[in-house]
Amino acid sequence: MLTVFILSLLTLIFYISKKQFNKTVWFGITAYIATIFIGVLTTNFNNEKYHTNHYLNHLTQENKVEQSITFRIKEVLKPGKYHDKYVVDLLKIDHQNLTGKTLLNIQKDSTISKLQVDDILMTTEALSELPPPLNPNQFNYKAYLKKQYIYHQIFSENNSLFYLSKDTHTLDGYASTVRNNIYNTLKTHHFKPDELSIINALILGQRQEISKAVYSNYINAGAVHILAVSGLHVGILLLILSAFLKPIEHFKHGKYLKVLLLLLLLWSYAFLAGASASIIRASTMFSIVAIGMHLKRPTNIYNTLAISIFFILLFKPLFLFDIGFQLSYLAVIAIVSIQPLLYKLWKPKLWLLDKIWQAFTVTIAAQFGVIPISLFYFHQFPGLFWLSNIVVIPLLGVILTSGIIVIILAVLNVLPQFLADCYGNVISLMNTFFAWIANQKQFIIRDISFNLLYVLASYFIIIALVRFYKNRNHTALKLLLIAVISLQIISIYTKFESHKDAFIVFHKTRNTVIGKKHNKTFEVFHNLDTLSNYKSIKTYVVGNFISHITEDTLQSIHAYKSRTILLIDSLGLYNIKSLRPDYILLRNSPRINLDRVIDSLHPDKIIADGSNYKSYIARWEATCQKRKLPFHQTSKKGAFILKD
């Protein structure tokens, strides 16, 4: 009701302000407030767990364990190391019709074909909680899935699943069927696996089959964005469709029919390609462009972007937190605002040189938009990104157009094998080129520490620099100086925070890893074969601006500030005279009587890391509960951390 009142007030102020000669700020203030209320309303409305028939509102501890779950496959995800992964829509729990999404993990079995979208199955496996990150600065997969309204997961084997239906029922199912048919048709033309996976990603937006090595090459070459169907792909498709449908304009009301067909075909392709955040963004933006082209009105790109953002977030508010969504819009905004300034720096007279310069300035401008947030998420910078984009982006239109033609001919069963071989060779050549760039390791800057404050300061400086370049006046200079001072303040604050000390017992299955942080030095004690393969140390070092790492073997006693940590390993030795440890770390499943240890040493807390048997941990936890002594299990609570 409050939102309706604010919108009514906004409408009233709008009509009043139209008649006023001197404009006031009240319309703008009311518009901002209305936008906030609309955002809150749409976020809550789209949050499925607030719906009365969502499974979370009917889930009890009893039916969480013993239940039959009926579900429909919604999306096929990239397989993990041990499981095939799917997003499923719940249909029933026991005999109650419920809704909601969950993650399905099925143990890999090469003898059984994978599930398809819209397959309906039943299982008696229990819903389980999504695990939180167990080590500091680790990717929070639980929070990521929560933004997609996924709160639980199911682990199952194929023999625990019961098929109920394999019929297609939804739009996603029909799109998946078409994609699979195209994919299977292309396979008959003897494309290599890496070629076929790239074609599937470039044209159909499906990246599940791309090998880890090929995907890493595209990332390290700074060209991974071409594998996500986005604005570039949809823009090229719009030009192709507009040219193809141009004859319709000669008929009566042909222009109206043409724009309707353009919108229908654009959105059909969007759903066929998986309807990801980048595809929805691009389709929305180019739908507005298509309508503007039909009305023959000049379109302001910033207004077009704003309208597309508004409508996308109106229906999918949590797209705001999607990395692809953020990168797409930041790149487009940077291109339209910065590229014209860069292009004016030099005016080549030769046509080819002019096109190369234009592609180069587009690439540089896009990097201004995405570098800060890319450093925040990925902590690396591909130094040869400009070479990748200069070579491939001008050719991408030809590659996409040829790919669409190849797919159409293949579906019609009239694709000549020599044409398929030629296109496959082009894709292989592109893969080889990116592999070569990715192997130039000296140009890839890795492990860059970059936090959210630096992201905000970086964009502030970029905006201030662009404004100062456009308007070289005192106001623009003041803004630039404020941006520089802001960056200095953030640097000082970050340096102060990074100098704080910490003692950490990491969670590592079958091993013990302990870290001591002092200023920007990190000392690691472990029993691993090599520390380089343990990613949690790397993410912690990068996330905390650590510049120096040392290694050592595990010790029986560790001291941190005024506190003492005693390690009891498989030997079970702890009788150390005159020692009263503050914490006891149990590792490698020591056969001890924990009651006797507590009576002897009187610790403040017991810690059990990932090197212990689960049965031992359960027994120790029960003992601590009985003794009312704090117990920290790293496999449940995550790493044990002591700070200043």
Overview of this protein structure:
With 644 residues, the chain is α+β, with helices and mostly antiparallel strands. It folds into 5 domains: 2-46, no CATH class; 55-169, OB fold (Dihydrolipoamide Acetyltransferase, E2P) (Beta Barrel), CATH 2.40.50; 177-445, no CATH class; 452-498; 502-643, no CATH class. 52% of the residues lie in helices and 15% in strands. It has 21 helices and 20 strands. Strands 1, 2, 3, 4, 5, 6, 7 and 8 form an 8-stranded mixed β-sheet that branches. Strand 1 (69-76) and strand 2 form a beta hairpin. The model has no long low-confidence stretch (mean pLDDT 86).
Q: Total strand count, please? A: 20
Gyration radius over CA: 29 Å
- Principal-axis shape: globular
Question: How many domains, as an integer?
Answer: 5
Number of H- or I-type helical stretches: 21
**Mean pLDDT over all positions:** 86
**Secondary-structure content class:** alpha+beta
Helical amount among residues, as a percent range? 40-55%
Distance between the termini: 48 Å
Low-confidence stretches: none
Strand content: 15-25%
Query: Which sheet architecture does the biggest sheet show?
Result: 8 strands, mixed
